Amino acid sequence: MAKIKITQIKSIIDRSERQKRTMQALGLRRINHSVEVEATPSIIGMVRKVNHLVALESL
């Protein structure tokens, strides 16, 4: 599987609880925090739900 780098670019303040939990599940904690994960279908689905809060890079 390919790896992707996910970076939080916006705050989760005033977001729904579901979006906050999705960000936590992705391992993102604060603005400009990045994680490298495998590009599995479940991860891609989570990223699509919070795509307005994150930036993606292919590795």
TrEMBL record:
<dbReference type="GO" id="GO:0022625">
    <property type="term" value="C:cytosolic large ribosomal subunit"/>
</dbReference>
<dbReference type="GO" id="GO:0003735">
    <property type="term" value="F:structural constituent of ribosome"/>
</dbReference>
<feature type="domain" description="Large ribosomal subunit protein uL30-like ferredoxin-like fold">
    <location>
        <begin position="4"/>
        <end position="54"/>
    </location>
</feature>
<dbReference type="Pfam" id="PF00327">
    <property type="entry name" value="Ribosomal_L30"/>
</dbReference>
<keyword id="KW-0689">Ribosomal protein</keyword>
<dbReference type="InterPro" id="IPR005996">
    <property type="entry name" value="Ribosomal_uL30_bac-type"/>
</dbReference>
<comment type="subunit">
    <text>Part of the 50S ribosomal subunit.</text>
</comment>
<dbReference type="InterPro" id="IPR016082">
    <property type="entry name" value="Ribosomal_uL30_ferredoxin-like"/>
</dbReference>
<protein>
    <recommendedName>
        <fullName>Large ribosomal subunit protein uL30</fullName>
    </recommendedName>
</protein>
<dbReference type="GO" id="GO:0006412">
    <property type="term" value="P:translation"/>
</dbReference>
<keyword id="KW-0687">Ribonucleoprotein</keyword>
<dbReference type="InterPro" id="IPR018038">
    <property type="entry name" value="Ribosomal_uL30_CS"/>
</dbReference>
<comment type="similarity">
    <text>Belongs to the universal ribosomal protein uL30 family.</text>
</comment>
<dbReference type="InterPro" id="IPR036919">
    <property type="entry name" value="Ribo_uL30_ferredoxin-like_sf"/>
</dbReference>
